[in-house]
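Session log. Operator J.P. requested a structure for one protein chain; no other inputs attached. Running the standard single-chain path with token output.
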Amino acid sequence: MTELIADCASIPTALRAGPAPRQQPRAVGTWTVNEACHAQVADLDEYV
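Structure written below.
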């Protein structure tokens, strides 16, 4: 691991610069459980 860190430290700064940071993800709406979602897990106890 020490050798890997030393190798990476010797990479020129110009080559280490990455792309610009991504923008923050947009806000998403509130998630709610609908009947279809509930039906998928209604019998979950039988399988657990």
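Operator note: Helices lie at 2-9, 13-16, 35-41, 44-47.
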